[in-house]
Amino acid sequence: MQLARMHDIVGCRVVFESLDELYSFRSEFNKSRFSHKRRMKKVANGADADAYDYVTNPKPSGYRGIHDVFEFRAKQGGKSKAAGGERWNGLNIEIQYRTKVQHAWATAVEICDNYTEHHGKFSNAPEEYLMYFQISSELLSRKFERKKSCLPEWSTADLKAKFESLEDSHRMLSTLAGIQPNDENFPAERNTLLIFNSETGETKVAVFKSFRGAVAEYFRLERDASEQVDVVLVAADDPESVRFGFKNYFSDARDFVNYVQEAMKS
Q1: Given the DSSP bridges, would you call strands 191-197 and 10-16 parallel, antiparallel or unpaired?
Q2: What's the angle, vertex CA 177, arms to CA 176 and CA 180, rounded to 5?
Q3: Using CA atoms in the order 147, 258, 97, 81, what is the torsion angle rounded to 10 degrees?
Q4: Residue 172 near residue 226, CB atoms below 8 Å
Q5: Of 26, 114, 106, 103, which Cα lies nearest the Cα of 70?
Q6: pLDDT of residue 151
Q7: CB half-sphere exposure, 148, CA atoms < 13 A
Q8: pTM score, two decimals?
Q9: What 8-state DSSP symbol labels residue 30?
Q10: pLDDT at residue 3 tops 50
């Protein structure tokens, strides 16, 4: 894939307590005066739409969130000009906005992908697996955000009945509840590599004082590691921010389990 066509060669994930906070922050952020150009998404009639809004239009899988994609543009002239920065002009930067509920759902999908190899987030999993996460997305959206998701025509009673039937058959919520999160401590450094091995289900954490050192190790692993190894480079202020933003790397589905249990009781 060409780097210029990727949405997340560089990315930022921001997680909010509520949709109101998400919309407020995003609105103010997009009023900022920076050089990067926000990409708009073309709809069927050729008009520009609010880019990648999966809250207003959830994905068929049940994924919800908002993604803004910017084309990088180095500042021109003046002291603020970064030497050599122009070489990156045109590369894409993605900012991903989620509520805590949306983040918990997406985390659970990725954890199940790691343990079952169904890859539900790419919609090529068995039908009942996909239905499980579609229903859970709908239940969580209605319960905590008062919005519909990917199954708007279903009644809440039917959603709960089908979810209970799937859980009785496949015990996926019980499985997620039983997975022991990786609570291993690691030092507080600005640059963190998360190295997940899908064959063993284990995540190793490497921290670096130097961004250059982290990048060098990232590319070494991308070059030399097996196909079972997935690596992400995270810049965060503290270990808890890393754990929260990338719960899937630590096999932590506790928020999802708690949200679903609350939605099923209400």
Answers
A1: unpaired
A2: 85
A3: 170
A4: no
A5: 26
A6: 97
A7: 9
A8: 0.83
A9: T
A10: no
